Predict the structure.
Amino acid sequence: MLRYNLTAYLYDTRYAEDQKMKYALILQDLPSGIGRLVLDLGCGTGLLLPKIMNRCGEIIGLDISKEMLKRAHLLTDGKTSINLILADADHLPFRKCCVDAIFAMTLLQNMSDPRHMLNEIRELMKPKGRLVITSLDEIKDPKAFRSLLKRSGFQLLRFQSISALKCHFAVCGVKKDPLAEKSRAEVLSGGYT
């Protein structure tokens, strides 16, 4: 967090072009209506927020850096459909199954326990929700990244390595839990078999 608070003033100068190229790539295949509630996890200076605000009802930008959020506020000031929250991605302050889509762009490599964060994300997503996530290729090779997502309960809907940006990105849904589905069916039928 301290590193991002100290460097927030130059983040866009250093990374805006790379981030914008990532956003263009991931947004080209997403539907125009990506959901009523969208979370940009690790939103940083808020570069993605204006690009998705016309595709959903409400957006929450969450970041652990107060200085990054100050910059995001300057970019999004006056847009009532965008809310910014200072919080830790390892301890998300939301109820379960409430988010339609989650963006986690260039966040994974900053997490001490990526699997824990992915479990937190999975808990937040509605059953038909979508996760759009990137990882730097120097941190995770493609096979390890795909494996991490699958082990964390996600179904890969799209996966691509982008050598020009030195990253991988994935669009995921939540895997159906056959045991949970069976239990639900048993409860609905009025008994256990």
Observations:
- The helical segments are 2-27, 49-52, 66-76, 114-124, 142-151, 178-189.
- Confidence is low (pLDDT under 50) at residues 178-193.
- The chain has one domain: 2-189.
